[in-house]
């Protein structure tokens, strides 16, 4: 009698689902076809969009996003979570294909946990961004779509990185990703200051996402807001985007307030004299 019969051992089913990602060249495509070309011709082309943003300021990093997940002209989920925590001091915004973003954030959590077990401490935000970009760059050209802003606080302070699925990795102070990002950038460029208070930063992030959801058809639902501090990330609020936009419309614009103030308190007219003109002489 064989040993496997005694122990009731069975060979693992290699055809079943595996928790590990396939190698870049191991995708199931028809024989003789290049995976990249096959996906470009026969892959699904569904329009999708979102609005996510993150910016760095004196008191940490702010991350905000809408909650609408769309698939073509269909709203798949109006209350999805597009800001995913990685560990206590790191989270990221997600834009692109929802399944790809969820899978790669699970992979990133696993790799960072293994790193912490080996090294005794978690890597920096820059190290986590480099690790994610290196892993995803191996699948370049295989229709992978992940665009994320990693927001965290490490030993050097707050940090913000943008990572794309083709291996792009950028460090900056302001990032907005998604179909609504041009509208969000318009608000951020006008109101961003590094020395903002937390309440001013919250108001700016809500305003930027709310205006983007009003103009972009693929963004909507609610506005999620996170704040990464030295003590860890904090879930600040979730506000309905339509209600938030209506409240913002009722607020007076800063330019109009300045114009009204200047009309109420006009500057005294000052008399200027050209230095080339001779001085006036007194007639006695």
UniProtKB/TrEMBL annotation:
<keyword id="KW-0963">Cytoplasm</keyword>
<comment type="subunit">
    <text>The 26S proteasome consists of a 20S proteasome core and two 19S regulatory subunits. The 20S proteasome core is composed of 28 subunits that are arranged in four stacked rings, resulting in a barrel-shaped structure. The two end rings are each formed by seven alpha subunits, and the two central rings are each formed by seven beta subunits. The catalytic chamber with the active sites is on the inside of the barrel. Incorporated instead of PSMB5 and PSMB8.</text>
</comment>
<keyword id="KW-0647">Proteasome</keyword>
<comment type="similarity">
    <text>Belongs to the peptidase T1B family.</text>
</comment>
<protein>
    <recommendedName>
        <fullName>Proteasome subunit beta</fullName>
    </recommendedName>
</protein>
<dbReference type="GO" id="GO:0005839">
    <property type="term" value="C:proteasome core complex"/>
</dbReference>
<keyword id="KW-0645">Protease</keyword>
<keyword id="KW-0539">Nucleus</keyword>
<dbReference type="GO" id="GO:0005737">
    <property type="term" value="C:cytoplasm"/>
</dbReference>
<comment type="function">
    <text>Component of the proteasome, a multicatalytic proteinase complex which is characterized by its ability to cleave peptides with Arg, Phe, Tyr, Leu, and Glu adjacent to the leaving group at neutral or slightly basic pH. The proteasome has an ATP-dependent proteolytic activity.</text>
</comment>
<dbReference type="GO" id="GO:0051603">
    <property type="term" value="P:proteolysis involved in protein catabolic process"/>
</dbReference>
<dbReference type="InterPro" id="IPR001353">
    <property type="entry name" value="Proteasome_sua/b"/>
</dbReference>
<feature type="active site" description="Nucleophile">
    <location>
        <position position="50"/>
    </location>
</feature>
<keyword id="KW-0888">Threonine protease</keyword>
<dbReference type="InterPro" id="IPR000243">
    <property type="entry name" value="Pept_T1A_subB"/>
</dbReference>
<dbReference type="InterPro" id="IPR023333">
    <property type="entry name" value="Proteasome_suB-type"/>
</dbReference>
<feature type="compositionally biased region" description="Basic and acidic residues">
    <location>
        <begin position="262"/>
        <end position="284"/>
    </location>
</feature>
<dbReference type="InterPro" id="IPR029055">
    <property type="entry name" value="Ntn_hydrolases_N"/>
</dbReference>
<dbReference type="GO" id="GO:0005634">
    <property type="term" value="C:nucleus"/>
</dbReference>
<feature type="region of interest" description="Disordered">
    <location>
        <begin position="249"/>
        <end position="284"/>
    </location>
</feature>
<dbReference type="Pfam" id="PF00227">
    <property type="entry name" value="Proteasome"/>
</dbReference>
<keyword id="KW-0378">Hydrolase</keyword>
<dbReference type="GO" id="GO:0004298">
    <property type="term" value="F:threonine-type endopeptidase activity"/>
</dbReference>
<keyword id="KW-0865">Zymogen</keyword>
<comment type="subunit">
    <text>Component of the proteasome complex.</text>
</comment>
<dbReference type="InterPro" id="IPR016050">
    <property type="entry name" value="Proteasome_bsu_CS"/>
</dbReference>
